[in-house]
Design brief:
The protein has about 200 residues and is of the alpha/beta class. It has one domain: tt1808, chain A. Helix content is about 40%, strand content about 25%. The termini are far apart.
Length: about 200
Amino acid sequence: MAYSNFTFKDLKADFDVENKVEKLFSGIREIQASDRLLEDLEIAKTQPVRSEKAKSEFIVKPILVELLKLNDRFFSIHSGDQLNADKERGLVGECDFILARNAGTYDIHTPIITIVEAKKHDLEAGTSQCAAQLIGAREYNKIYDNPVHVLYGCVTNGKLWQFLKLENNIIWVDEEEYTLELLPKLLGTFQNIVDYYKEHLN
């Protein structure tokens, strides 16, 4: 089994992880996008952005790079890397994006946010995959003695974005979905998550 094969029922049976739906964020300070990001997203509208790879290149990556610039490289972006935490329990596989605490290393150091590009625009199917990757990130951090008590994830089909949080063996799925039409709110939500780690990680 790999991350993409897990359902929420599997996660409950194998890891005793519950899932709940709740509004995860409130009072978010919106962040205006830079001219460069707005230009990149306008270009994306003119392209045949159908595949996961195209979404990654034209939509997701520019947004993550914008976040990177805003935070003075506090984290590093890993694209298409393997997050192999526990092969026997199926916590292995490629992740579309992993944001990890930047420690100046070549390998993944302290993953904090996982991002899944929903296959065939199916946001719901991507949610369980993202949840499994959060469990994988938790176990990976334990292996390398970097325990992180709260981990965040995001599922996107390029147009809609939905956040998840793993805390105390509960996967919280945000009841709100974000759109590119509300880009300042989306950027502000990502920044809220990064600010949490700036406060809680050394």
